[in-house]
């Protein structure tokens, strides 16, 4: 239970464009009385964005399963016995067909994911054609292929990639509980390469992994202190998949999820904050509160990578109810 002071005084708000966020400051934001936190986030959202517009990204898994990494949340890891069947890399034509469908459904961005630690050069070469052809359809392009080696981000950029997604996933202090096959520092290094190549950065994390509120504050502070801040910040609510070590994690209360969205919006006022994985398990009213608290992007399409997402019709209906329009 959170205790709200009997006589509530509005705590001093850090400037919305503050660059250096301490974990204490973000934790204090997360601990504001719920209505105050949502109100402040909504206020800041309106300073930088049209609150009736929402960015729609469609995901496709171009290479599924069999990943050598041991991320404790992920159904695609070789280390966990999950219902996901390994699939070889999709062909360029298959990816382009999926992108055409995404565009027809109204998506603005197409995000290609692969279950790799990082791309081998031969694999990367195949993805460059996908990027080129998806870009030619008039969609924004995004890729999430894991750790990048020198030169790979530049090749993606030259092929027409707009965004690279690479998540910090959790707070530095919590990280070693979740992933053992690569370090936090490796992730920061890849993010640096992505930036250096001139790509836009999509970087966020996952909540609902038995972390504390302070851990959530630690993740948001890390993201907000990236310089420049990521253009796009996916906030995933863990999708619990049988066979993964986190299949039985205690579920985050919906209010705590909304608080996380609101704090991300306040700490990163100019970023698109994406209400990401976990929406299928979330009721419409909670999603609406997330949008009020500053979320202005979603994954749109019947599937995420290997798990389900609300279907397109359900999302179109929700957007119509909330008078939200696709960007
Ligand atoms: N293999 C690459 C990597 O890990 O960087 C790219 C694909 S990986 C599946 C992309 C992101 O999906 C992860 O960083 C994580 O944030 C998210 N993710 C994976 N499994 C998830 C789950 N069960 N629930 C929520 N998010 C998940
Ligand atoms: C992100 O932050 N979330 C997406 C995307 N980036 C690649 C992935 C969510 C995956 C959820 C589990 C699955 O479908 O396999
Ligand atoms: Fe592999 Fe990415 Fe899943 Fe980790 S999150 S196991 S790197 S696919």
UniProtKB/TrEMBL annotation:
Binds 1 [2Fe-2S] cluster. The cluster is coordinated with 3 cysteines and 1 arginine. Binds 1 [4Fe-4S] cluster. The cluster is coordinated with 3 cysteines and an exchangeable S-adenosyl-L-methionine. It is an enzyme of class 2 (transferase). [2Fe-2S] cluster binds at residues 111, 142, 202, 274. PROSITE patterns: RADICAL_SAM (PS51918). InterPro entries: Aldolase_TIM, BATS_dom, Biotin_synth/BioAB, Biotin_synthase, Elp3/MiaA/NifB-like_rSAM, rSAM, rSAM_sf. Its cofactor is [2Fe-2S] cluster; [4Fe-4S] cluster. Keywords: 2Fe-2S, 4Fe-4S, Biotin biosynthesis, Iron, Iron-sulfur, Metal-binding, S-adenosyl-L-methionine, Transferase. The keyword S-adenosyl-L-methionine applies. Pathway: Cofactor biosynthesis; biotin biosynthesis; biotin from 7,8-diaminononanoate: step 2/2. Its EC number is 2.8.1.6. Residues 52-276 form the Radical SAM core domain. GO terms for biological process: biotin biosynthetic process. It catalyses: (4R,5S)-dethiobiotin + (sulfur carrier)-SH + 2 reduced [2Fe-2S]-[ferredoxin] + 2 S-adenosyl-L-methionine = (sulfur carrier)-H + biotin + 2 5'-deoxyadenosine + 2 L-methionine + 2 oxidized [2Fe-2S]-[ferredoxin]. GO terms for molecular function: 2 iron, 2 sulfur cluster binding; 4 iron, 4 sulfur cluster binding; biotin synthase activity; iron ion binding. The keyword S-adenosyl-L-methionine applies. [4Fe-4S] cluster binds at residues 67, 71, 74. Catalyzes the conversion of dethiobiotin (DTB) to biotin by the insertion of a sulfur atom into dethiobiotin via a radical-based mechanism. HAMAP family: BioB. Homodimer. PANTHER family: BIOTIN SYNTHASE (PTHR22976), BIOTIN SYNTHASE, MITOCHONDRIAL (PTHR22976:SF2). Belongs to the radical SAM superfamily. Biotin synthase family. This is Biotin synthase. It comes from Chromobacterium sinusclupearum. The gene is bioB.
């Amino acid at each position: 239970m959170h205790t709200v002071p009997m006589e509530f005084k509005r705590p001093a708000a850090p400037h919305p464009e503050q660059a250096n966020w301490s974990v204490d400051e973000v934790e204090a934001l997360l601990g504001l009385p719920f209505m105050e936190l949502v109100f402040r986030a909504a206020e800041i959202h309106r300073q930088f964005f049209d609150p009736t517009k929402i960015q729609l990204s469609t995901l496709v898994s171009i290479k599924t399963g069999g990943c050598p990494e041991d991320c404790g949340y992920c159904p695609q890891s070789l280390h966990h016995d999950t219902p996901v069947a390994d699939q070889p890399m999709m062909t360029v034509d298959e990816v382009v067909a999926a992108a055409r469908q995404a565009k027809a459904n109204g998506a603005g961005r197409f995000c290609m994911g692969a279950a790799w630690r990082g791309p081998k050069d031969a694999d990367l070469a195949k993805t460059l054609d996908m990027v080129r052809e998806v870009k030619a359809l008039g969609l924004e392009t995004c890729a999430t292929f894991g750790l990048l080696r020198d030169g790979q981000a530049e090749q993606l950029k030259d092929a027409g990639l707009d965004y690279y997604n690479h998540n910090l996933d959790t707070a530095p202090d919590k990280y070693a509980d979740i992933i053992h096959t690569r370090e936090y520092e490796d992730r920061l290094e890849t993010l640096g390469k992505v930036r250096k190549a001139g790509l836009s950065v999509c970087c966020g994390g996952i909540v609902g992994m038995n972390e504390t509120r302070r851990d959530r504050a630690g993740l948001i502070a890390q993201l907000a202190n990236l310089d420049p801040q990521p253009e796009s910040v996916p906030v995933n609510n863990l999708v619990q998949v049988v066979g993964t070590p986190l299949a039985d994690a205690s579920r985050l209360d919906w209010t705590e999820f909304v608080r996380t969205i609101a704090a991300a919006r306040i700490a990163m006022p100019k970023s698109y904050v994406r209400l990401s994985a976990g929406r299928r398990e979330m009721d419409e009213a909670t999603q609406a509160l997330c949008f009020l608290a500053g979320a202005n992007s979603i994954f749109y399409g019947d599937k995420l990578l290997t798990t389900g997402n609300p279907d397109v019709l359900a999302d179109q209906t929700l957007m119509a109810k909330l008078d939200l329009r696709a960007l």
